Structures are given as structure tokens and as C-alpha cells.
What does this fold into?
Amino acid sequence: MSVSLDIRLKRANKVYHEGERVSGVLLVNSRDALQHQGVSLSLEGLVNLQLSSKSVGVFEAFYNSVKPQKSKLQPNPVEFSITPETLQNVRERSSLPRFLIRGHLDATSCAVTQPLTGELVLESSEVAIKSIELQLVRVETCGCAEGYARDATEIQNIQIAEGDVCRGLSIPIYMVFPRLFTCPTLETTNFKVEFEVNIVIILQDDHLITENFPLKLVRV
Amino acid sequence: MASVQWHSRARKYESELHMCRLEVLAVELSDYHPLKAITVTDSKSRRGGRKGSTSSSSSSCSSVAPDPLSLTLDGTDPLSLFAAASETPTLPHSISAGKEEEVGSDFEPWSSKRGEILSRFTTTEKLSINLFMGSDKSKASSPSSAVSEKVRTRLEELDDLEEGSQRELLNLSQQDYVNRIEELNQSLKEAWGSDQKVKALKIVIQCSKLLSDTSVIQFYPSKFVLITDILDTFGGLVYDRIWSMCADPHPLPESFSADDVNDTAKETCLNWFFKIASIRELVPRLYVEAAILKCNRFLTKSGIQETLQRLTAMIRGIGDPLVAVYARAYLCRVGMEVAPHLKDSLNKNFFDLLASFRQVHGESVQNQLVLQRVEIPIYLTLYSPAIHWILQCVAYRAPEDYINCAEIWVEFTCRHFTKREVNTVLADIIKHITPDRAFEDAYPQLQSVIKKILTYFHDFSVLFSMEKFLPFLDMFQKDSVRVEVCKSIMEVFIKHQQEPTRDPVILNALLHICKTMHDSVNALTLDDEKRALSLLINGFIRMVSFGRDFEQQLSFCVEARATFCNLEPVIIHLIHTVNQLAMETRRVMKGNHSRKTAAFVRACAAYSFITIPSLTSIFSRLNLYLLSGQVALANQCLSQADAFLKAAVSLLPEVPRTISIEGKQRSSESFLLDFINNFLSTLLVVPDHPEQGVLYLVRGLLNMVQDYTWEDNSDAKIRVYISALPLLAAMSQESYLYTIPKVDSNETLYGGDPKFIAEINKLCETLISQVLDHLKGLGRDEGVRRQGSLAFSLFGCLLAHGDLRNNKLNQLAVNLWNLSHKHGFCDTRTSVRTLECIKHQAQQADMSHLSDMTARLSLQSRA
It folds into this structure.
């Protein structure tokens, strides 16, 4: 006897807000007569923890109810200017080629449903540019008094410039947050989900310049 | 009253004049005179404070007082304002919805370009198709990524064509390449048909990636053609699928909006956009999103516009200028297909292209060319299909934008360059705006172009030597606009042309322009408009001078007469011009005409003689006959003068009793009297025609006056008779008051022949008896006031011109005086002064008889 059950929700985009009703139909497909004891509906929430080798042992100490947060969105544009002098973690600053990159992000507090936007201008560079990318990183932190585990994951990489781009011409920064890999920023005592964007500039000589911007994602 | 015998008083004009002269007074030139031009006097140089009195003169600094009439004509009259307001501006095509959102057949489609590109950009070098594989991880992602293996695999799913497989096709000939791409196109359709949507997307992404590869660069344009074919296929498939999802229960209408689309279809559509937004590499992400641009229609109203703007900006991220320009061409292509009215993005693409064009000479490109051994000129030709396409899109139905720019540019050109460059701009405007009669929508801008040129070019020989100037004017094909433009040109000419000209270029062009103005006149043209046009044309004619080449001047007038025959003021002006020409000839010859100049002045007379009858205004005709007669006489053209004056006399019966003056019917009597008096004074110097009787012109005139239908209760005829007496008296003098040099008047012809004098006297007596009869008639009716006035006139005439030593005349004069005072309507002051004058005259030699007369002239009889 083969039976298939198919729950078809009425809402195409599967996004529900507080107070809304989840409705749809249940499609039962069976060749033969099917006996049953009534159909009941139950909803489960699931958080899947993936353990990395670094965080083994930490999660044993972790328990807390996770409460979603709602916060207001305030546009807070960020200007940036990148030169060899502004870089940290440089071994030999003198060996760096000269360059000047300026730009801004329209906001670092973003609605998850809205793209990250901004502009970037390559004012000058001694060495040709190979690529400019936006790297979206999710940072998950778990911890308690005994210590914490931090796990950064690249969840999306978007190339916004390819090749030796024109100097002085503004290039748009534009990235849609992937629906499956982003959620509102979450911060509790023991558990944090945060997002960052890296602007990554790769020079022809494979020098890598990265500028990091913490983001705060909210669902409006 | 018995008939009177006339005796003219003998006159000594010289001594009379001398005696009449007042004591000579020095006239201060600075004295106020209403007709004098206002001049500025430097008030500082004057001593003494005349406070406030200088303010009126010093405030106007022009040497000529502004004419208040022309000032009021300046500006727009209420009627034309009204007409202007009713002309609502036409909306640009893009605003109106519906069919306008599709390109017309006047847009050369991409399909006709692709074959040309494929056959032009070929190569014999070996090509490769490298479809990046999922297993080749180090190549596919940037070395920066610190990402777990698992996540990366998931991210790169989209980039893989077939999981775990790798395909790199090397050493392909061009034909092989074309075949392979076609195979990919087929497998795209197959994948789609078998519901493998993700595979289909992968194929498209992998193909788009090939466009960021510029190896075998001379083949790039063809590669672009082949791969965008695949993109077009993909775009069509996605669109049709989403469209079909909305077909239940009713198919979507062609002009559907996002509101008509159901949620499932929207969600599917949104999914496509999310998938595409996560494509890692710039070039494929750009191309694939552009390929499904049209799908934005399912989501939002403004989606297409916003996406076009965003993708346009996104292309700035492409460093390779060749890759970038083709990406722009593709974006313009889909933009034109989906929303040709969204010009902004098309223009932005073009301007971005210009802004980044220096990339062509950048180091990266140079290195690449060296590596591939391609010369710059060859390399640059690779851009032409893309740029050509972009320009075609930008220029499509863009005359409005164009003309708005051109209107500004022309001023820049006028200000900083010479006529050569301005001519180039004009030629360019003509070229752009002639197809489809686009100029019809651009009259205001075209007018403004003319206005700007006229602001900077006042030298009309320069202006008209621009060979495109007149062809430019030809674009004004709407009558009203064309005339406006011609008028503005003529206004500038009249204002700025300082010297008379004979430059054939100017004359031809202005004749053309004036003819255009003249030809616009029809039965409906308002009088004001005719007058304005005539003024401008007269201004032109006034500025035409061939110097001493009088013959040329006359033939110009002949031509002008033919050209401007419908504007009476112009014809009148031409007659004056020709008369002036005759007088100028006389002046140059100092009154002694040669055979040639005599023939010439006769030709001038002939011109006037045949032109005058074409005028409709009777007083214009009369006055011009008289004037032309005087000119002919001055130039010793006796028979011509005779003809003019005879024509005037025979015209008199046609003078209507009322004429229209500025739209009002007025009695013509006073004008007629003026004319006749003027005519009479001319007759003194006109010698009698040898074949006609004595004084035949005077008699002719008087006969006409007698037969003319005067107004009822009018004294006009009698006044003419009284006016004729001084002429006749003047004619009977031994030496005339005035003569024309080299023309023998009756004074010489008759030499005071008693028969001639007798004729004159007879005529005078007839006239006087007519006057007296009339006076008698007035006594019977209410006409005593008129009687008094006429009697006094005749009295004055007798006193001045009659020989009052003759008792009968003397008695008549006394009677007339008394008659005029009989009813007390006489102006006492005039009477007193007249008496004083007579007494003064009586003191002179041979005039003592007057003192006897004064005794008999009682001053007032108010009884």
C-alpha cells in the first residue's frame, strides 16, 4: 500500500508574520482505501546546531531559550576610505602598492528583505585591479561562563567589479541577502548570530585588501 | 447783383515779401519745440539751480524720443496671447501608453544586425569553450574565501553544469564553436522542456561567463551575437512560463499590470530573481538578469525602470572596455524591446561609455593587444557594432532631445566660433530633424535657434553666406511660424543694417524672406498685420542702394513691384522711391539732363504712371499723381507731367463722399479740398499744352469741381472757386511767384498777352458770379452764418488779389465786408486786424485808394 501526503500551504512565499493564520490543504494520495484515526496538525520549530571541531564541549554547557528580537531600523550610512595606511594586519607596509579606494554603504542596519547598497570609487591604484567582491559572512557565537565558540561562515560572495576598472567612476555596491542563509541579527547572553560584509579587493599581483563592516539585520 | 469785371492786382512779389518780413529775431536753438527730438543737456555745465527742471530731459538719454505708438505695438496683443494660450503643449510620445511602448518599423531590429556582425568578425584562430566545473574549486572561487567546504559546495551548485563533470572544449574552429553554442542552445531548450529549470539556468550562466573572456578578441563581437541568442531564448522561456502560470482562469491581457498576477506566479518570478542575484560573477549575473528583464512586469510597475538603472550602473564594474561596451549594447537591446520609452537608461549607458572610454588606452588593454598581436585600429573596429547599436537606441525618436541640445549648442557656437561652425551646426540640425518631418514638433526651438543666431550675427552678408541658413528657414513650413521667423529677421536687419547695400547675396535672401512675408497675405489677413509686414518690407527697400547705378535701382523697383503687389503701402513706397530716384538723377545732372538721363527720368515717370492705377486708395492715387507730375515737371518731362495731372483731374469724379479712415467712415470733403488747393498751386507752373486751349487744366479741374456731387448743404465747391481766384491772379502777373528751372511756364509762353489776361479775367468773373449766386442762396435759409464766412473769404481774396482801384470791385469788396458783418457772426478780432492790415497797406505807394475804402468798412453791426 503506497500513500503520499502532501501539505500544500496557501501562501506561495511561505513567510508568515505573528498573528497570521497558516492555512492550506492536505493532499492524501492512495491507490486503495486508506484507514486512519483522524488527521491532526502540529507545528515544530527546529534549530539545527552544527558543531565544528573548535566548539566541541562548549555546547554541553549551553542552554537557553532563544527569543527573537525586534528592533527599529535606522539608516546609518558609513563612509570609508581605504589606503595602505588604513590597513591593519599588514606585515610589510612599505611593500604595498599605492592605492585609494573611497566609498560608502547606505546603511549597515539593513532589512533582510532589502539589498545592501552603496558605492565605491577606485580613485587610484598603482597596480591593476583583478576583482572587487562583497563577501557576506555569518558569525555565530555560543558561550557561557566557561568560554565561547565563534564560527564565521561565508554565506555569499558577489563580485561587483571584474578587471582593471575605470578610475574615478563610482561602482555600485549591491547585494541581495540570500533568503536561506540570512536571518535577523540575534544577540542573547549565550548565543549570537551576527553578520558582516567584507569588501574584498584583489589586485593583479594577488594582494588582497579587505575592509570589514559589521551589519545589523532586522526584519521589518 | 450785376456781373463784376475782374482786374487782377499787379504784384511785386519781391518787395512785398521784403515788407512782409518780420523783424529778424535770433531764435534760440535750445528752445523747446514739441517736435524737436529730446536731447540730453549736461546739466552740470549750466550755472544756477533750476531744480527739478532738468530731470525730465536727463532721464531719457536716447537722442530720439520713443514713439509712443510703436511702443504700444511692442509685445503681444491680447488676441495673440489668447491664441498662444490655447496651444497646449503636445505631450511627448513616451507619456502616452499602449502602442507607443513598442518600437516601430523605423527602428532597425537586432535581427538584421546579427548576420552582418557574424560575417564581419571572423577568425581562423583556434577557439575554446571552457565551461567552469564544480570540481575545479580553486579556480571557481576567490582565494580569499574562508568558507567551509560544505557551504561552498552548496553555493557553487549553481555554477556547475553537470555535477562532477568538467567540459573544456579546446582547439575549436570558428564553425565548431558556432555549432557547439548551438548545441548548448538546444540543450537549454531540452532541459527546459524536461522541467530541469536549474540545469537550464546553469547552461545560461556558463554561457554568459564566456563573455568575460576576451581571448581571440577579434571574434568577440560574433561570440556576443551567438551567446546573446541563448540569453534571448532563456529570457523568452522564463517569461512565457510565468505568463502561463497566470493563464488560469483567463489569460492575461497584453497590457497586464503586476496586480493582475497571482501570488504563485509572483513567487516563482521572485525566485528566479533571487537565484540570479546570488550568481557570484559579475558578468553572468548581469547578462542573466538582463535576459529576464521583462519578467519585472509580473512584480512591480517600476521594476523594469529600476532594474535598467541598476544594471546600467553595474556595468561600471566591468574593467575590460570591450566587454563593458557589449554588455551595454545588450542592456540597450533588451531595454528597447521591453521599454523603448525609458530613454534615461539608454542615455546613461551612452554617457557612461564616454566616461570610461579612456580605458581603451589603458595598460590592461595594451598588454592584451600585444599578447594577441592585434593592432589598435583593428581593435577599435571591434567596438563599432556595439556603439552603433547603442547610438541607434539613443537616437531612436529622439529629435526632441536632440533639438533641445542643439538649441543650446548653437548659442555657444555663435558666441565663440565663426559662421563656418554655426553653419555646421545648422547643417546638422537640418539633417537630424528633416526625417519624418520632425521639425513640425520643434518650431519653438528652431525659432529660438534663429533668434540666437540673429543676436550674434548682425552682418547680413556673413549671415547669408552661411549656405545652410536659407535651407534652415525652409524647415518652417507652418505659415504662421514661417512669417514670424521672417519678421524677426527683418526686424534685426532694419535695426542693425547701418549702410545701404547692393550685396547680391543679401538682396536675394531678403527678397526671398520678404516675398515669404508678402505671400502670406490673404483675404483674411488683418490690416494691422499688413501694415506691420509693409513696414518691414519698406525698411528693406529703403536699405537697397545701387549707388550711382540708377538703372539697376529702377529695375530693382520693377522686380519689387512684381513681388510685393499685394501690399499697397509697399507699392506706394516704391513709387516714392522711383520719384526720389528721378530727383536724384536731376541733382546729379545739376538739372541738365543728357539724352540718356532724360530717357531715364521718363522711364521713372512711366513706372509711376503705370503703377499708380493699381492702388485702391483714391487719395493715395491723387496725391501720387500730383507728386509724380511735379517730379516729371521738375525733370522737364512736360507731356508726362501733363498726363499725370490730367489723370488726377479725371480721377476726381470718382472720389467718394465718404472714405474709411482707420475703420471709420469720414467725410472726404476736407481731404478733397486740401488736394485741390495743393493741385491749384502746382498749376501755376504748368505750361499750357500747345494743342489744347488756354488754361485747359484749370478749366478741366473747375469743370470737374462743378460736376462733382458735393455733399448737400456744402460750401466746398464755392470754396474751391474762391481758392482758384488767387491762382488766376497769380497767372496774370508779368513775372510769376515761382517757376521751375528750365521749364517755361505760361508767363513765358504768353508773355502777358492781353488775350490771355482777358481769358483769365473772364474766368474770374464767372467764378465770382457763381460765388455771389451761392451767397444769395444762403441768405434765404438758415445759412447766414455760412454766408458771412464765405463773404469774408471772398473779401479777403479781393483785397489780396483784386485791383481795388476799380470801382466796381471796390464796391463789391465793401458789400462783401458788410454782408459778412450783417448777422454778427464775425470774429471781431479778425475784423479789427483785417482793418489794421488794410490801413497799413494803404500807406504804401499806389495803395491810397484803400484808405478811402476803410472809411466805408463799418466794424460791427450787431443789429
About this structure: Residues 28 and 155 of chain A are 37 Å apart (CA to CA). Chain A has a mean pLDDT of 83. The longest strand of chain A covers residues 129-144.
